[in-house]
Amino acid sequence: MNTNKLTEKQKMLSGQAYQAGDAELAKERLKARELVYEFNHLAPKFIKQRKELLKRLFGKTERMFYVEPPFRCDYGYNIEIGDNFYANFNLVILDCAKVSIGNNVFIAPNVAIYTAGHPIHAYLRDQEYEWAQEITIGNSVWIGGNVVINPGVKIGSNVVIGSGSIVTRDIPDNVFAAGNPCRIIRQLTDADKDYYYKDFKLGE
């Protein structure tokens, strides 16, 4: 592939090095920021209006979702969320590459999801080169407060990520993972469900 014929946006979306100062990308970031600004400054009672703004901003939404303002993103169109999605205050998604989020995902406050990266060597970084890798989050995932998810990470389904974790590598299904760097602490089983029924008397 001759990368000289690709636009900076095409390079970004294909995972190649690109220059973020490109005029087309700058225009798209500005458009996203206008929608995000409007979203973040609506009065709390305007729930329906905020939802409509996110439908315009995100690449894909389902019937049930709720995002607490303030929220920040780069482009918006690279974000895809599943049904029954909830994000608490101060979610940041740098969506230079696609961010795919499944059904029944709960995100605690101050979570950062970063697809974007920069060269370690200052010579290339000073020329505004960047790169981006997709992030995938499965179904029925709970991400604790102040978690950072780094570029290229895949988080499986039925996963809990402990508060303050820095997720630098893939996390498989059905585990509780935490730490810096984030690592598997243990498997999640039906015993965890029994614990809540026994000690918290759910449904009574």
- Give the end-to-end Cα distance, rounded to a whole number of Å: 63 Å
- Per CATH, the class reads Mainly Beta
**What's the CATH topology name?**
UDP N-Acetylglucosamine Acyltransferase, domain 1
Low-confidence stretches: none
Which class do the helix and strand fractions yield?
alpha/beta
- Named CATH architecture: 3 Solenoid
Shape: globular
Pfam families: Hexapep, Mac
Family: Belongs to the transferase hexapeptide repeat family.
InterPro entries: Hexapep, Hexapep_transf_CS, LacA-like, Mac_dom, Trimer_LpxA-like_sf
Domain Maltose/galactoside acetyltransferase: 9-63
Question: Would you mind describing this structure in some detail?
Answer:
- Belongs to the transferase hexapeptide repeat family.
- It comes from Pedobacter suwonensis.
- The model has no long low-confidence stretch (mean pLDDT 94).
- Helix 2 (23-41) packs antiparallel against helix 3.
- This protein is globular.
- Helices cover 25% and strands 26% of the residues.
- It has one domain (8-200): UDP N-Acetylglucosamine Acyltransferase, domain 1, CATH 2.160.10.10.
- Strand 18 (175-178) and strand 19 (183-187) form a beta hairpin.
- The chain starts with 7 loop residues before the first helix and ends with a helix.
- The longest helix is centred in the first third of the chain and has 19 residues, at 23-41.
- It is built from five helices and 19 strands.
- It has 204 residues and is an alpha/beta fold.
- It has helices spanning 8-13, 23-41, 47-57, 122-125, 190-200, and strands at 18-19, 65-67, 71-73, 79-81, 85-87, 91-94, 99-101, 106-107, 112-114, 116-117, 129-132, 135-137, 142-143, 148-149, 154-155, 160-161, 166-167, 175-178, 183-187.
- The strands form four sheets. It has a seven-stranded mixed sheet, with no helix packed on it. A five-stranded parallel sheet has the order 3-6-9-14-17. It has a four-stranded parallel sheet with strand order 4-7-12-15, with no helix packed on it.
